[in-house]
Amino acid sequence: MTAATDAGVRLSRPAVGLPTPPERIVHLGLGAFHRAHQAWYTARASNAAEWGIVAFTGRSRDLVDRLSPQDGLFTLVERAADGDRFDLIPSIVRVEAGDDVPAFVAAVADPQVAILTLTITEAGYRLAPGGSPDLDDPAVASDVDLLHRALTGVAPDDTTNGARPSTALGRVLLALDARRRAGAGPIALVSCDNLPDNGGLVRRALTDLAGRISPDLAEWLGESVSVVSTSIDRITPAIDAHVESHAVLEATGWLDDAPVVTEPFSDWVLSGKFPAGRPDWESAGARFVDEIAPWENRKLWMLNGAHTVLATLGQTRGHTVVSTAIDDQLCRDLVEALWDDDARQLPDFDLADYRAALLERFRNPRIEHRLAQIALDSTTKARLRIVPVALGERAAGRDATGCAAAIAAWMLGVRAGTAPMPDGIEPAAIVDLDASARKALIGALDRRLAEDVGFAPHVADAITALETS
Ligand SMILES: NC(=O)c1ccc[n+]([C@@H]2O[C@H](COP(=O)([O-])OP(=O)(O)OC[C@H]3O[C@@H](n4cnc5c(N)ncnc54)[C@H](O)[C@@H]3O)[C@@H](O)[C@H]2O)c1
Ligand SMILES: O=P(O)(O)OC[C@@H](O)[C@@H](O)[C@H](O)[C@H](O)CO
């Protein structure tokens, strides 16, 4: 195949003169974010030549079809307010479909592989509200049953015994068991999804599931799988790949079917051990810390919490993207009020620079971050990103007016249909947002907050203020 066509250069490693690093990281849930974040950090590490990624998609094989013909190479477009920067990212060396369970099992069981990373979205973990695996979910229950039969009955050299779990954690457990049987040694498991205490949640969920499936796997998991916690940050919106492919061709001469657009800012904080080694991610700007919670809380409460406010209130005021919503004075004041509450719950940080940087990032007019995308599942997001701050502020004897206004904004979004209706609430019951409707909606977020008679009036005041502005 010739690399150059009349239109441009078809991406391939020989065409652009890039080597293929060895497969030492497996990723599940290949999408835009993994490529803008973990793949980018790996490509920039000082020992990048030693670390290649085998990436499995989550639910569709679309990216296999687009990335495999270009040897996993893709262009990362860093979109700043004043222009674009184009980088070719070579760290993904093989792309496979997420439902190719035997290929995933074989990759994780390879003794050269040291790390398994995940970006399967918050919903992909299939956890119940308390954080344990949702055993009422038929797919979870079916995988537990299937894996129990497969893993307690197979010959030691048969890695899958034909088992085809459908859930992400089911596939991870099957693959980890194959690694155990192969004697391939310990591995680090890194969740890169926006979940509070993502490492702790994943460790507890896998331990619970493994305990139901196989005592040998449960024991090995405790000894040989190091679950690392992370705070991950880089705004990476969904894009029109066709439009962006044109922009890449114009700027670079590359024919790229799968570019990614992201912002220039990036941050990665990790906490945990990598028993089989890892890329020198610090050389690319990542940080390792002993205690992840404050970093995670800062990012989830401030960036994602503000996004939830902008997505719910912003849409009711006619905005479609973050960059215009943040310049609407009412939305901006509400975000600042929420951040004031957040700041009191984050005493370890001086947040002036962080707040200024967030505003600048949100304002980037060339990043088209759609509010409708961010508003998905906003009941769970408000529960995880606004409620903990409200509870902390109330426990400290303060009013939590920023959180109350954020919750009021969410209620207006629910009533307007720009945020999803929480389970158990009837649309007709919240038309007036009267005292009982407000109490029901606060209760859908958190029972304790709904019982706090001192908090409800602040929500009522905020609704009045928002409706009359
Ligand atoms: N995009 C961002 O700005 C950003 C920033 C920080 C963190 N994240 C985290 O990364 C996740 C993925 O974001 P993205 O931009 O790559 O999205 P994306 O839509 O480009 O990719 C999501 C990937 O997850 C898979 N997936 C979706 N639902 C799944 C399920 N139920 N089970 C298994 N796999 C599933 C998809 O098939 C796809 O491979 C987010 O949900 C978030 O937790 C994203
Ligand atoms: O679906 P969410 O709310 O977890 O995320 C939507 C965006 O807020 C999120 O993807 C941010 O862009 C990201 O967390 C920035 O690092």
Automatic annotation (TrEMBL):
<keyword id="KW-0560">Oxidoreductase</keyword>
<dbReference type="Pfam" id="PF08125">
    <property type="entry name" value="Mannitol_dh_C"/>
</dbReference>
<dbReference type="InterPro" id="IPR036291">
    <property type="entry name" value="NAD(P)-bd_dom_sf"/>
</dbReference>
<dbReference type="InterPro" id="IPR013118">
    <property type="entry name" value="Mannitol_DH_C"/>
</dbReference>
<feature type="domain" description="Mannitol dehydrogenase C-terminal">
    <location>
        <begin position="292"/>
        <end position="412"/>
    </location>
</feature>
<dbReference type="InterPro" id="IPR013131">
    <property type="entry name" value="Mannitol_DH_N"/>
</dbReference>
<protein>
    <submittedName>
        <fullName>Fructuronate reductase</fullName>
        <ecNumber>1.1.1.57</ecNumber>
    </submittedName>
</protein>
<dbReference type="InterPro" id="IPR050988">
    <property type="entry name" value="Mannitol_DH/Oxidoreductase"/>
</dbReference>
<dbReference type="Pfam" id="PF01232">
    <property type="entry name" value="Mannitol_dh"/>
</dbReference>
<dbReference type="GO" id="GO:0008866">
    <property type="term" value="F:fructuronate reductase activity"/>
</dbReference>
<dbReference type="InterPro" id="IPR008927">
    <property type="entry name" value="6-PGluconate_DH-like_C_sf"/>
</dbReference>
<dbReference type="InterPro" id="IPR013328">
    <property type="entry name" value="6PGD_dom2"/>
</dbReference>
<dbReference type="GO" id="GO:0008926">
    <property type="term" value="F:mannitol-1-phosphate 5-dehydrogenase activity"/>
</dbReference>
<feature type="domain" description="Mannitol dehydrogenase N-terminal">
    <location>
        <begin position="23"/>
        <end position="282"/>
    </location>
</feature>
<dbReference type="InterPro" id="IPR000669">
    <property type="entry name" value="Mannitol_DH"/>
</dbReference>
